[in-house]
Amino acid sequence: MEFQFFLEVLVGGLLAGVMYSLVALGFVLIYKASGVFNFAQGALVLFAALTFVGFQNMGLPFWAALIITLGVMVLMGIGIEKIVLRRLVNQPPISLFMATIGLSFFIEGLAQMVWGTEVHGLELGITDEPFEVGGVFISSFDLFAAGISGTLVAVLALFFQKTKLGRALRAVADDHQAALSVGIPLQHIWAIVWAVAGFVALVAGLLWGSRLGVQFALTLVVLKALPVLILGGFTSVPGAIVGGLIVGAGEKLAEVYLGPYLSGGIENWFAYVLALVFLMVRPEGLFGERHIERV
Amino acid sequence: MIYRESGQFKTSYQNDSVIFPIKQDRMFIFALLALAALVVPMFASEYMLSGILIPFLVLSLAALGLNILTGYAGLLSLGSAAFMAVGAFATYNFLVRVPGMPLLLALVLGGLCAAAVGILFGLPSLRIKGFYLAAATLAAQFFVEWVLTKFSWFTNHSASGVISSPPLEVFGIALDTPVSKYLFTLAVVVVLALAAKNLVRSSTGRAWMAVRDMDVAAEVIGIPILKTKLLAFAISSFYFGIAGALYAFILLGTVDAQAFDLHRSFQILFMIIIGGVGSILGSFLGAAFIVLLPIVLNLLGQLLHGIVSTQFLSNLEMMIFGGLIIFFLIVEPLGLAKMWQITKEKLRLWPFPH
Fold first, then answer.
1. Would you call B177 helix, strand, or coil by DSSP?
2. Mapping DSSP to helix (H, G, I), strand (E, B) and coil, where does residue A137 land?
3. Residue ranges per domain, chain A?
4. A80 to chain B: which residues are within 8 Å by CB?
5. B-proximal residues of A, 183-202, CB under 8 Å
6. A230 contact residues in B (CB cutoff 8 A)
7. Which residue among A7, A151, B59, B299 is the one 20 to 30 A from B22 at the CA level?
8. CB nearest to A98's CB, from B217, B273, B323
C-alpha cells in the first residue's frame, strides 16, 4: 500500500513534469536558434490561450479558432523579429534578455487589453477520468497532455538534427556574424523560430489553460519552467523533457514526504534548489553543450 | 564655453586621484548636494518628499547594489529583492529584540546579515555562469520569501506576517516627519554612493571588471576568482540589505515579505538597464526614471479619465512600460548614463562646432 501510494505520487509528478517541459521547450527553441533567453515565453502562452478562447467565444468552431490563433502567433513572431530583434543584432545577450522582459510586459498588456482580464474556462473535450493501472490511478488528461508533449519534442528534435533549416538555426545560435557571413538569412531564421515558439506557446497555452483556466496566472508557468531549463540545459530539446520529468517528480515527492516537516508551501522553491544543487555538479545542465574556455 | 577643463592642471598625485577630476563636475555635485540637503526640505511638499524623493533615494541604493553585482562584476542576478527582504527583516529583529539598539548600528548589522546570505547564494557563481546563474538566483528569491513567510520568528510572531517599524531615532533626533526621514535617507545614500564610487576604482573594482570581461584571463593574471565574485555578492547584498531596511521602515513603515517579490527584483534590474549598466550615475538616473514614469503615466491617465476605463489604462501602462524598455535598448543600450556622457562631450565644444 505504501509503495503503491509512492508510485501514484511519482506518476502524477512525472505527468505534471511533462507539462513543465512543454513550456521549457519554447525557451529552448529560441535559445538554441538565437542565443536569446526569452522571458516573454510566458506572455506568449497567455496571449495564445486568450486569443484562442476569444475566438471560440465568438462562436468559431475549435479547428477554425485553432488555425486563426496559429496565424496570429505566426504574425506575432514575424512582428517581434521585424520590430525588436532586427535592431538588436550583435548586442550582448543581457540586452536581448532585457528586451524580452520588456516584450513580456508589452504582450501581457496587449493580451488583456484586447481580450479582457476575466478568467475564461477552456474545454478541450477530453474527459479527465482517472483510470487504474495495476492499482495506480492515472489522470487521463495528464496522459493526453504528456502524449502531445512527447510528440512535439520528438518532432522538434528531428527538425533540429536532420533538416537543413535546423542546421541553419544551430549555426545562428552559435554565432550571429559567422552565420550571416556564410549566407544564412538571419532575419528569416529568427522570424521562423519565433513563429515556431508561438506555436509551442499555443499548445502549452491550451493544455495549461484547460487545467488552470485562461487567466493572468498562466504567465507564471514561466517560473516553473526555469528550473526545468537549467536542469536540462538551455540548448537541449531532450534535456527539457528529462528536466521536466525530474522536476515534476521531485516536486510532488518532496511535497508529500518533506512538506509536512517544513510546514508546507515548498513547491515554490523546491525545484530551484534542486536545480541549484544539481548545477554545482554539472554547470551546463544535463544535456547542455559543454563550453571549453580558452584565453 | 562653460564646461571646459582647459587650464585645470593636476600638480600632485592627490589632485590626480580625486573622484571628480573636472572642476565643473565638482561644483555641480556640491551644488546638487546643497540643493538636496538645504533647499529641498524647505520647499518640498509632503507628497514630494515621501511620494517621490524618498522612494527615489531608496531605490537608487538598491540599483547601486545591483550595478555593483551585474554592472561591475558581470554576475546577472534576479534575486535582488530577496536580499532586500533579508536586510529589512534582520534590521527589524535587531531593533525589536535588542533593547536600546541604535538605528544606524541595526542598519549596518542588517546589511551584514544580507551580505552573509548573499555569500551563501553567491557560492554557486564560481561554477555557474550567465543565464544559468540568473535562474539560480531565483532560488534565493523564492526560498527567502518562503522562509520569511513561514517562520513566524522572523516577524516576531506577528499574526499577519507583517512587520511594523518601531519608533526610529538617530542621535536622539526622532525620525517621524517626512523631512527628517528624507534627510536621513539622503545622508545614508550619499555616504554609500561615495563609497561605491571609490570602491569601483580601487583594486577591488578593477578585479571585478577583469572578472566580468573575461574570467579565465583574470584568473591567469592572478585574480582570485571565487574571492572576487563572493566579495561582489557580499557588498552588493549589503547595499540591498540597507536599501531593504530603508524601504521597509523609512518609506513604508509596515511591510511583509510579499513587498520584496520577484516584481521588485525586476524593477531594480530595469533601473540599471535604463540608467546604464556599469555606472554609478546610471543607478540614480535609472531609479529616477522608474519612479517618475508611473507618476507621469498616471497624470496622463487622469487626463483621459472618463473616456477609457481604469483597466484599459493599467494595461496601457504595462504596454508603454514594456515598449519604453525595448525602445531604450534599441536606441541606447548603455542607458541614460551614456546619453549624459555624450551630452557632456558635446558641451565641451559648445557653442563652437570644432
1. coil
2. strand
3. 18-216
4. none
5. none
6. 132, 135-136
7. B59
8. B273
A164 touches chain B (CB under 8 A): no
Residue of B nearest to A234 (CA): B132
Strands (E), chain B: 162-164, 169-170, 173-174, 254-256
Contact call for B329 and A95, based on CB within 8 A: yes
Let me know if residue B289 belongs to a domain.
no
In total, chain A counts a number of residues equal to 295
Asked if A109 lies within 8 A of B135 by C-beta distance, the reply is: no
In-domain check, residue B95: yes
CA distance A248 to B144: 22
Q: Are B70 and B133 in contact (CB under 8 A)?
A: no
Domain span at residue B234?
Answer: 34-261
Q: Give B266's contacts in chain A (Cβ within 8 Å).
A: 101
**Distance in angstroms between the alpha carbons of the first and the last residue of chain A:** 58
Q: Across the interface, do B323 and A266 touch by the CB < 8 Å criterion?
A: no
Q: Under 8 Å CB-to-CB from B107, ≥6 apart: which residues?
A: B91, B188, B242, B245, B246
All residues at 6 or more sequence positions from A228 whose CB lies less than 8 Å from its CB, including other chains: A17, A20, A21, A23, A24, A240, A243, A244, A247, A271
Q: Compute how many other C-beta atoms are within 10 angstroms of the C-beta atom of residue B18.
A: 11
Q: Which residues are paired to B301 by β-bridges?
A: none
Count the domains in chain B: 1
Residue B142 maps to a domain: yes
From CA A26, how far away is CA A24, in angstroms rounded?
Answer: 5
Cα(A176)–Cα(A182) distance, integer angstroms: 10
Give the helix, strand, coil percentages of chain B, each rounded to 5: 75, 5, 20
| Residue B92 near residue B163, CB atoms below 8 Å | yes
B97 belongs to a structural domain: yes
- Which three cell numbers, joined as nine digits, stand for B328? 531604450
CB crowding B88-102: b at 16 or more within 10 Å, else e: bbbbbbbbbeeeebe
Task: Give how far B324 is from chain A: nearest CA, Å.
Answer: 8
* Residue A100 cell numbers, joined: 524580452
Residue A11 distance to chain B (closest CA, Å) = 25
